[in-house]
């Protein structure tokens, strides 16, 4: 239905805006800045995406049950490891903190929509040709829908993963860690969107980008801190990870949740902002080149 389609809603928003601008009476209405209108338009896209995804909440809960299996296996492996080492902490993490770290890390990755598949399908079917001609920014539209979907899936995965953590250790007391996690998660999802969108735009040239996405998430699995907190790597791997953007996607929000440190949150947000600027410039340049080279299939 048109009302539930973010793209159609954005078009309607733009059309209504144009109609208002053409009415003589609008000359006497207070002017609203262009930036505010743009913000309102893409906020509306995000809200509709949230509403659409909430309709499938039950399906998301069922699908995320597999997360319990993954976390249970990790829990058993790390229980044996801690018992073997014989110390209450490893690299500064207790067994309880480590398990909750994995809950947040898995939730961040599983809540991230798979853009490469979506854009690749749009190019193959020819749908991208219609979207590029609509009165909305293609990149901002994708960002609004990405964030809307991610923030519906995130609480679902935290709830499912939290069942195991709460069963083993009781209700967690993260205190300010929850606020730190929410703040850093915005930058984490933004950078993950930018990296995924850069990979997805390669479908404008080569169409098949799922292999690139597969490799990307394997890098996030290791250098991003999804498998282990980066403190546990140490040495050269840790130094390399510190210079790459992948740590901002998983390691930053997960660490802030289980080991909140007010002195670190400013640095994390600053690093995320820096990477967001660099990746936005790369994405914009790639998009402009890609649109000129795009070959569309389909009717």
Characterization of this structure:
By secondary structure, the chain is mostly helical. 74% of the residues lie in helices and 1% in strands. It has 14 helices and two strands. Strands 1-2 form a two-stranded antiparallel sheet.
Give the key terms.
74% helix; 1% strand; 299 residues; mainly alpha; two-stranded antiparallel sheet
- The coarse overall form would be globular
Helix content: over 70%
**What's the number of helices?**
14
Strand element count: 2
What is the chain-wise order of helices and strands? Answer: HHHHEEHHHHHHHHHH
Give the end-to-end Cα distance, rounded to a whole number of Å.
Answer: 22 Å
- What would the average pLDDT be, to the nearest integer? 85
Structural class: mainly alpha
Taking pLDDT < 50 over at least 5 consecutive residues as the criterion, the unreliable ranges are: 17-29
Bin the strand percentage: under 5%
For the biggest β-sheet, the strand order reads 1-2
What's the SSE blueprint?
Layout: H1 6-22, H2 34-54, H3 57-63, H4 66-85, E1 89-90, E2 93-94, H5 95-110, H6 115-125, H7 127-132, H8 138-169, H9 177-201, H10 203-206, H11 210-222, H12 235-242, H13 251-258, H14 262-293
Antiparallel strand pairs: 1-2
Helix pairs in contact: 1-2, 2-8, 4-5, 4-8, 5-8, 5-13, 6-9, 8-9, 9-13, 9-14
Quick overview of this protein structure:
With 299 residues, the protein is mainly alpha-helical.
